[in-house]
Design goal:
The chain has 1 helix and 10 strands; from the N terminus they run H-E-E-E-E-E-E-E-E-E-E. It is mostly beta strands and 135 residues long.
Amino acid sequence: MVSAKTLYSKVLAVAGRVDGIAGGGAWQTPSPNSGWALGSNDGTCVPLRYRIEPGSILHITGAIHSTSATPNANFCTLPAGYRPATNQRSGCTEATASAAFANFIVLTTAGVLAPFLVTSASGTDYHLDCRIRLL
């Protein structure tokens, strides 16, 4: 016998929804703020993207890089439905042409996705692969 929750999840998957969010499961592409571009500076890494996974998990993965020595303090803003109930932090890698560093990102309840520390250098890459529970 199939549980009601399993059946509901299957119906949502067929309808192109996961956990009741339209487009859930499909990768979404953010619109970067001024001073940022999707992908790594050398173009070899997957551009930043996000999606909802089963269990109301937001999966953010890929790269974004600065295109200015003074980029906007925030990478982008995620739309409603992709925002956590409380501000969240997750690890990421920051890389310049000569070095790599551990850093972390912040995702706010308003959907603002930002690096904790911004290096003032054009061409700095930020590589993310994090999962954040939305409930």
